[in-house]
Amino acid sequence: MKLRKILKGIYALWYREFKVFQRERSRIISSIFMPLFWYFIFGGAMGSVVNVGGDYRHFIFPGFLAMTIIFSSMFNGAYVVWDKKIDFLKEVLISPLSRTTIFFGKALGGLTDSLLQALILMIIGIFLGIPFTLVNVPLTIIMLFALAVGLVSMGLIIGAFMESPEGFGLVSSFAVYPLFLLSGALYPLDNLPTWMKILTHVDPAAYAVDGLRGAILGTSAMPYLANLGVVVGFDIVAITIGAWAFNRMKL
Amino acid sequence: MEAIQIKDLTKQFDGLIAVDGINFSVRKGEIFGLLGPNGAGKTTTLMMLSTLLKPTSGQAIVNGFDVVKHPSEVRGSIGMVFQDPSSDDVLSGYENLKLHALMYDVPMADIDAKIDHVMDLVGMKDRKDDVVKHYSGGMRRRMEIARGLLHHPQILFLDEPTLGLDPQTREHIWGYIESLAKGQGMTLIVTTHYMEEAEKLCDRIAIIDHGKIVALDTPERLRHHLGGDLVFLTGKHLDAEKFKGLSFVQSIEASNHTLKLCVTDSVKHLPKILEIAGPLEHLEVHPPNMNDVFLHYTGTEIREDEGDVVIQRLRTYTRSKTK
Ligand SMILES: Nc1ncnc2c1ncn2[C@@H]1O[C@H](COP(=O)(O)OP(=O)(O)OP(=O)(O)O)[C@@H](O)[C@H]1O
Ligand SMILES: [Mg+2]
């Protein structure tokens, strides 16, 4: 009964996020074309200088899936700031829903956006000759899901604390670019200088990329489940902080 | 039974005291008006009662729950029509209302019928599927009023609900709001700058100025408090000094060429007043209305931030268009 109200509240917020997502076609299109653009330009250029022991474009495809998740998930937090600005957040915060419920509803909305974008990219991947099978597709989706949960939460945490879109843009890029560049999405991490290598060990996206590469291409530093375990650990921490941030968020 | 009890409620914004130790109670089923000039603290008060703002000090009990200790129970008892637009303009009116219905746990089977009902009430039924971005300012307002009515709260706050609405719509909406209070025992707290509406609709009115309650009573009694009728004299050679000290003149206000007197037993004393006044260009006598009461308690000077507030409000209404 109480649970029904909570689920209905989560559905309410998801409903809204999804409607907004549907209406903002330009965002969907750009979020799919950006990785594709990188894939061909960057993949073509780097492929000629980097030796990854195979087709470089295949090597970076899992990285591009992760990239889509990283950017779209974190960006999603900007909606919290936007909601503050258009006063829509008042309407949500004055409802009987708890802040924790609101957090989960928003997170679910962001998660849907991110995963849909990644799924479209996976379909494109089939045409690019990425060796998807009935086994590695679910493993890929599970890993993308796990990565998105934590990053959507991170975006929401930043959104909860920021008051202006500019502030959000600044702080989130400070988080997004290290996460992305240290994830190994674009290049193998083996030959990095030691200090950078240490940093890659605390980058949850690096484990996700390794896990994706293992699932899709069969080459990884760590076993899939170990990678997944680290990412899920990151999720739990991010969700906890996210729920806390929403509970202390001021208008 | 009291729907709302407020004790020494205070809100301070770094240095500025927006609400200054106010006290009052609102009975269940009452329509309670909160009037005051721009910046008086009306919205801040409603924000504290609805748990969106934490009071600096003092206490407020809403529907039996303390706003600080049991905010979620309070939120479960109330509804709010905000002063500023608070809908998502990417969504349609219907979608905004559906979101609201889901958040407030309106039974799934009833949602569409209820949305139709309230949208019909504000004359928006045939526009409900349009995106809010394409509504006019008044239409958006009407949609948000409909949204506030959707879940039938026990206590409904309306912060200047009819600002910018045409007279027909205002009349229609107030009629319905009144029926909610009288027929279903809903408690209503209303702020408005339309004095006539407040006078007609409210069971009791509190006048708030500089964060303090300066008067609180039924509209009728507030008018009687002034102590007489208002006499407006206009002429070139009027001298306010001559009226001072007369027992039947309660108050005098002078502005260029016009004197405003509050006179007890005006019919009886008018000849005397005309005699003192000398030649006049214009004479007007009327019993005080809410406007007079308001000006009496809050003074006639325009608040410094009034212009800004109006401009800012216009901006919020047009913001959606420039997005
Ligand atoms: N978030 C805030 N931070 C700082 N000051 C604020 C804040 N909100 C309101 N104030 C100040 O508190 C005072 C009361 O504002 P409030 O919005 O309650 O007035 P109001 O009576 O609703 O006025 P209006 O008729 O213009 O709506 C004003 O001086 C305003 O500048
Ligand atoms: Mg106000």
Write the layout of secondary structure elements.
The complex is a heterodimer of chains A (251) and B (323).
Chain A: H1 2-23, H2 25-47, H3 56-76, H4 78-85, H5 88-93, H6 99-127, H7 136-161, H8 165-181, H9 194-201, H10 204-217, H11 224-248
Helix pairs in contact in A: 1-6, 2-3, 2-6, 3-6, 3-7, 3-8, 3-10, 4-7, 6-7, 6-11, 7-10, 7-11, 10-11
Chain B: E1 2-13, E2 16-27, E3 31-35, H1 42-49, E4 57-62, E5 65-66, H2 71-77, E6 78-81, H3 93-103, H4 111-121, H5 137-150, E7 155-159, H6 167-184, E8 187-191, H7 195-201, E9 204-209, E10 212-217, H8 219-225, E11 229-234, E12 249-255, E13 258-263, H9 266-277, E14 282-286, H10 290-298, H11 306-322
Parallel strand pairs in B: 3-8, 3-9, 6-7, 7-8
Antiparallel strand pairs in B: 1-2, 1-4, 4-5, 9-10, 11-13, 11-14, 12-13
Helix pairs in contact in B: 3-5, 4-5
The structure holds adenosine-5'-triphosphate and magnesium ion.
Adenosine-5'-triphosphate (ATP) binds at residues 13, 16, 18, 36, 38-44, 83, 309 of chain B.
User: How many structurally independent domains of chain B?
Assistant: 2
Biggest sheet descriptor of chain B? 6 strands, mixed
Shape of chain A: globular
Q: Sheet with the most strands of chain A?
A: none
Give me the CATH superfamily of the largest domain in chain B.
P-loop containing nucleotide triphosphate hydrolases
Give the overall pLDDT of chain A as a whole number. Answer: 91
The CA-CA distance between the termini of chain A, in Å, is 30 Å
